[in-house]
Design goal:
307 residues; alpha/beta; 20% strand; globular; 11 helices; binds iron/sulfur cluster
């Protein structure tokens, strides 16, 4: 682990980097077995992309991904417009993004989230004073070198929205889930603090973040369904969140370099929502699940890793 430390974002050419994202780290911490299916197992169709992706994404995950795509479409349309953005421009961007969303492969899910998206863009966004700086921007922070392979290790992350508010920079994360986070959960979640730490290490002076909850629970009160909450971690928490990610990164690199590695199963309530539960159960019985892995799954499309 001593090999890994935050480095500045010098424009060095990266040597075929190993990319350990926040979600990869979280997957490893949640269940090593699932992590191995999700990020290490090779699919015959594309051995360059380690990891298996279910052909049918879990419904909640698919809706979240679709919602993010619609928001990205709207924000990219709005970004070049004159600031402060007029309500008309915000409504037009929301309308166009929703129509675009309807035409996408997951378009039939759009009605579940379009009221929330329209409310946020038409009523909240025009009066928030947020100037759009970057939309779905991907960053790569070099954090060390794998002593075994010599490859660079990077922390890749994509920020839903970077904004300027009253002269300071903030990051924004959308959540499409049934409920918003309690203040206790906001105080614990490492995602925004980790991103802030990484962006500061890249020289981008981010002050704090916001979660925008576009709740998928059916509700009559739109004000309660679309909620924006700030996340203002102090420096200690930012460093701690990033240290935790570095520690997990070290463990992941170690197991990736160990062909004998046997992951532990973390069986529990999460198994009910696990895309790999059938494969996991078959293998737990000592039977072969390789055919199922090839038929029911595709090569990883999680975004970052490619050998
Ligand atoms: S079913 Fe449970 S134990 Fe098996 S991989 Fe999924 S989360 Fe882990």
């Amino acid at each position: 682990m001593s090999e890994i430390a935050i480095k500045s974002n010098d424009k060095v050419a990266l040597n075929n980097p190993i990319k350990i994202s926040y979600s990869k780290g979280q997957a490893f911490k949640a269940c090593e077995r699932k992590f191995r299916y999700q990020h290490l197992e090779i699919h015959a169709v594309d051995p360059k992309k380690p990891g298996l992706m279910p052909k049918n994404l879990a419904p909640a995950l698919a809706l979240g991904s679709h919602g993010h795509a619609i928001m990205e479409h709207a924000m990219k349309e709005l970004q070049p417009k004159d600031f402060p953005y007029s309500q008309d421009d915000c409504i037009l961007a929301a309308n166009n993004a929703i129509v675009w969303g309807m035409q996408q492969p997951r378009g039939s899910r759009t009605p579940e989230i379009m009221k929330q998206i329209m409310h946020f863009l038409a009523n909240s966004f025009p009066v928030m004073g947020w100037r759009i700086i970057a939309v779905e921007q991907e960053y790569m922070l070099p954090i060390g070198k794998d002593p075994v392979s010599g490859r660079d290790i990077v922390y890749p992350f994509t920020v839903d929205l970077v904004i300027e508010l009253a002269g300071s920079i903030y990051i924004v994360d959308y959540k499409f889930a049934a409920d918003d986070y309690s203040q206790d959960r906001i105080d614990i979640e490492p995602q925004i603090p980790g991103y802030i730490g990484a962006m500061r290490a890249l020289g981008i002076k981010v002050v704090a973040g916001f979660y925008v909850f576009l709740r998928t629970r059916k509700m009559n009160d739109i004000e309660a369904q679309v909620v924006t909450k700030p996340c203002r971690p102090n420096d200690v928490r930012i460093q701690q969140s990033f240290k935790e990610h570095l520690m997990t990164t070290g463990k992941i690199i170690k197991v990736q370099n160990d062909p004998e590695w046997e992951p532990t199963r973390n069986a529990g309530p999460n198994c009910n929502y696990c895309d790999f539960k059938k494969v996991c159960a078959i293998e737990l019985r000592g039977e072969d699940a390789s055919l199922m892995k090839q038929i029911d799954f595709l090569p990883n499309d999680y975004g970052y890793e490619e050998l």
